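$ ./design --mode recover --in tokens.txt
reading tokens...
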């Protein structure tokens, strides 16, 4: 209750939260805006028959926009794919690596290239979807595309421009949330899409139980399993490995002695929800292209990339492990941390300052990443296999649960940090005023 009062009383934080809610509401409205020239009922019927495969996964990340073939049908995944590409290129291309080292100005330039890449990927994915849907029919035989032109504009041109513009608008909304709201904009957009399907999934599950397709006892066991998984996610997401830090004595008396010991916190899952999102995005892009061609060898690739297939899960685990280490390497520099500790007189007990400290921190971090990668891989793969065997709604898989819980935890932690920072600033401001009164 005290936390709610702090949010209500903090005008700046309240504005940020309301702005975030407003942007997410705009996104959810856009999900229901259809593209002209498409039979909405035929599209819904078509994707309902495909929901257990790759389309189900893609539809989950777009918040149901794909099954409605709305203006946001591509979702934010092209932007995430473009971000991955340029983060990888920043490590191998000298020009981009130099930009990254320039700080904020260089990062702005890389962000601009990322936006251009988003447009290119949206055009490619949009054209693939359009080509496929033009030759597709609903299970009842109704063609999905009713009109081959919208006025004087061909259907392909209108739809391609609409899908690309929708993705760019989502990208802009995500950036606005990150800058002017609370939390990571891209993650919150994906979170809102998954969360919006929870109620629908619950209703569908009840219908399956009533029809006898899912035994009631089995569903209760799955529900209990989900609660256990959520508890495990919360426990591991907030878990830390604390490296003890001591500082050289710079004063005398008890006050100096009490302030010498500290710690360096390293999260057990240091990379958060980024690896599963990045891995899903990379796997969805080629698999989506494979869905929209009729070549036999491409169709075999499509079958092997089914979210419940062995090859897909092996690639998924491999990419999760890769991004666990890659993302950590980008956001955390042990050499820089060791240099800062040495600069301010800090050291790890029993470890020499400088390179030995950075090597020790890197060693601890790598061990943590091994455990974090195993945790993420098991969480994202095993529940999905269970879901497939039990035939429950797809978004009850581990990846969806991880995103829901992980993003919620990250956002609440940012809110708490913002409240604490504001209280500290208010306290320091009050202390200065009191000090001036004493002087007078």
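writing sequence...
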């Amino acid at each position: 209750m005290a936390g709610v009062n702090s949010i209500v009383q903090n005008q700046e934080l309240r504005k940020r939260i309301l702005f975030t809610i407003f942007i997410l509401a705009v996104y959810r409205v856009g999900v229901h805006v259809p593209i002209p020239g498409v039979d909405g009922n035929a599209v819904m019927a078509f994707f309902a028959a495909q929901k257990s495969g790759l389309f189900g996964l893609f539809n989950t990340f777009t918040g149901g926009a794909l099954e409605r073939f709305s203006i946001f049908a591509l979702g934010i995944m092209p932007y995430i794919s473009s971000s991955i590409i340029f983060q990888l290129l920043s490590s191998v291309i000298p020009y981009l690596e130099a930009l990254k080292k320039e700080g904020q100005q260089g990062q702005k330039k890389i962000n601009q290239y990322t936006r251009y890449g988003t447009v290119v990927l949206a055009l490619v994915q949009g054209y693939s979807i359009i080509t496929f849907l033009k030759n597709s029919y609903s299970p009842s035989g109704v063609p999905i595309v009713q009109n081959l032109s919208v006025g004087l504009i061909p259907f392909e041109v209108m739809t391609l421009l609409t899908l690309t513009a929708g993705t760019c608008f989502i990208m802009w909304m995500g950036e606005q949330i990150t800058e002017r709201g609370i939390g990571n904009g891209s993650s919150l957009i994906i979170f809102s899409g998954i969360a919006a399907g929870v109620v629908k999934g619950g209703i569908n599950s009840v219908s399956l139980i009533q029809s006898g397709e899912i035994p009631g006892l089995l569903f209760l066991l799955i529900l209990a399993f989900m609660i256990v998984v959520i508890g495990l996610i919360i426990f591991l997401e907030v878990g830390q490995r604390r490296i003890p830090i001591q500082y050289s004595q710079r004063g005398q008396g008890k006050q100096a002695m009490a302030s010498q010991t500290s710690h360096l916190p390293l999260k057990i899952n240091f990379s958060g929800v980024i690896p599963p999102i990045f891995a899903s995005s990379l796997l969805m892009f080629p698999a989506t292209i494979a869905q929209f061609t009729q070549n036999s060898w491409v169709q075999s690739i499509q079958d092997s990339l089914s979210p419940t297939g062995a090859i897909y899960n092996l690639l998924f685990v491999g990419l999760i492990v890769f991004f666990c280490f890659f993302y950590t390497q980008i956001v955390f520099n042990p050499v820089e941390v060791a240099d800062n500790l040495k600069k301010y007189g800090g050291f790890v007990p029993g470890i020499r300052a400088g390179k030995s400290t950075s090597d020790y921190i890197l060693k601890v971090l790598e061990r943590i990443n091994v455990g974090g990668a195993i945790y993420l891989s098991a969480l994202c793969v095993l529940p999905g296999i269970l879901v497939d065997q039990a035939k429950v709604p797809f978004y009850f898989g581990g990846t969806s649960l991880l995103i829901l819980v992980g993003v919620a935890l990250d956002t609440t932690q940012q809110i708490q940090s913002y409240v604490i920072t504001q209280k500290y600033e208010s306290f320091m401001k009050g202390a200065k005023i009191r000090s001036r009164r004493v002087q007078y």
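exit 0
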